[in-house]
Amino acid sequence: MRGLSEWGTTAGGLALALVLTACGGSPESPETEIQTFIAKVQTAAEERNARELRSLIAKDYIDIHGNDRKAIEGLIHLHILRNQSIHVFTRIQAIEFPEPERALVIVMAALASRPVARADELAGLNANLYRFNLELIRHGRDDWLVQHAAWETAQLADFW
After folding, report:
1. How far apart are CA 18 and CA 38, in angstroms?
2. Which H or E run contains 97?
3. Model confidence over 38-74: pLDDT tens digits?
4. Please, are residues 122 and 89 in contact by the beta-carbon 8 Å criterion?
5. Looking at residue 159, what DSSP letter applies?
6. What's the CA gap between 147 and 125, in Å, rounded?
7. CA proximity to 149, closest of 120, 106, 117
8. Closest residue by Cα to residue 40 from 127, 145, 154, 138
9. 30-159, which class in CATH?
10. Beta-ladder partners of 92
11. Which run of H or E residues covers position 145?
């Protein structure tokens, strides 16, 4: 059983760590920021939260299909209307930083009507598989926005 002074030291250390984190102690690595961004996109899609998804798109968004921000917002809305249940399984294949404020990210995404926890579960599932090439720009201290995207159909093997 811990003594009171040992517990106090542990609690004090925990409190100090929380305060330092809250005060912006050591920032996340840029790679971790991108992973957090992709997780945020995934969560918003699964929650069918169009407002959150729209907030992750840069005002000057454009893609190779000629879609601007308004067109992508329409596609998001249409996808949410068509799918009562959205589950997303992602695999980040690459993250590059050609400039500190710009990231190039390759994300494999499986869109399914039921949860997918592991890539091997995709084999017996009817899911739409995509490869997304994203260009993200830094917005604020540790937030990112999609400025450009290209996507194509992916193969199951791309998820390993």
Report:
1. 25
2. strand 87-99
3. 999 999 999 999 999 999 999 999 998 899 999 999 9
4. yes
5. G
6. 31
7. 106
8. 145
9. alpha beta
10. 107
11. strand 143-153
DSSP letter at 23?
T
User: How far is the C-alpha of 109 from the C-alpha of 158, rounded, in Å?
Assistant: 10
Token pair 């930083």 in the structure block, residue: 97
Answer yes or no: are the C-beta atoms of 137 and 149 closer than 8 Å: no
Nearest to 92, CA basis, from 136, 139, 142, 126: 136
| Inter-residue contact 53 to 41 (CB < 8 Å) | yes
φ, ψ of residue 83 to 5 degrees: the values are -125, 110
Q: Which amino acid is at 11?
A: A
pLDDT in tens, 13-23: 333 333 333 34
Which residue bears the tokens 């949860």?
115
